[in-house]
Amino acid sequence: MIITISGMPGSGKSTVAKILARRLRMKRYYVGMMRRKMAKEMGMTLAEFNKLGEKEDWTDRKVDDYQKKLGEKEDNFVIEGRTSFFLMPQSVKVFLDVDMKVGAKRIFDELKKGECGRNEGEFKTLKEAEKSVIERHTSDVRRYKKYYGVDITDKSQYDMIIDTTRLSPKQAVEKIIAEIKKLKK
Q1: pLDDT for position 152
Q2: Is residue 53 part of a domain?
Q3: Which tens digit of pLDDT belongs to each residue from 93-123?
Q4: Domain of residue 89, residue span
Q5: Which end of the chain is more exposed for a tag (fewer CB within 10 A), N or C?
Q6: Is 24 within the bounds of a domain?
């Protein structure tokens, strides 16, 4: 079984994927970190890299080609990425939703700690983080519609939608596991 986790910025995708993979004893892949690393190697923030990606498809295609091949040759893993559900249609597709302000606050708080490696730039205020989250999400939606003709926010494409606004990561994982058990029946 392949479990793909997509969702809104700050919805807890990375944390949930980590816990879920550990609970299910599966390997975990993190597409966002691959893109962040590519951006950093070019001396760019993720936002700058996403802007470049609106004109240059290689910024996404390199990582997406990797995901597609991974889904064809491996099984039994959790992968988090905005397009993973689309590139691995055989997967159990999870979308983590969150109120944008809550997601931005989570990202802002994580960046303040300075240990996350998000490469999203520095925000002096929560308002700056909120603006950045909206811009990032808009860029993601624009790029994937342009390059793949897919709307990553169309929730009808997912097997389950979990709103994490008021959930802890562990609670979200419990909901996912319960839904997977229902899907298996």
Answers
A1: 94
A2: yes
A3: 999 999 999 998 998 888 777 655 555 667 7
A4: 2-180
A5: C
A6: yes
Q: Is residue 185 part of a domain?
A: no
CATH of residue 19: 3.40.50.300
CB neighbours of 55 closer than 8 A, spacing ≥ 6?
none
Domain count along the chain: 1
Whose CA is closest to 39, among 75, 64, 63? 63
Reduce the secondary structure of the chain to three states and give it as a string: CEEEEEECCCCCHHHHHHHHHHHHCCEEEEHHHHHHHHHHHCCCCHHHHHHHHCCCCHHHHHHHHHHHHHHHHCCCEEEECCCHHHHCCCCEEEEEECCHHHHHHHHHHHHHHCCCCCCCCCCCCHHHHHHHHHHHHHHHHHHHHHHHCCCCCCHHHCCEEEECCCCCHHHHHHHHHHHHHHHHC
Domain-embedded: residue 65: yes
* pLDDT of 165 above 90: yes
The tally of CA atoms less than 13 A away on the side-chain side of residue 128 is: 11
Tokens of 152: 């990553």
Furthest CA-CA distance within the chain? 49
Query: What are the φ and ψ backbone dihedral angles of 71, each rounded to 5 degrees?
Result: -65, -25
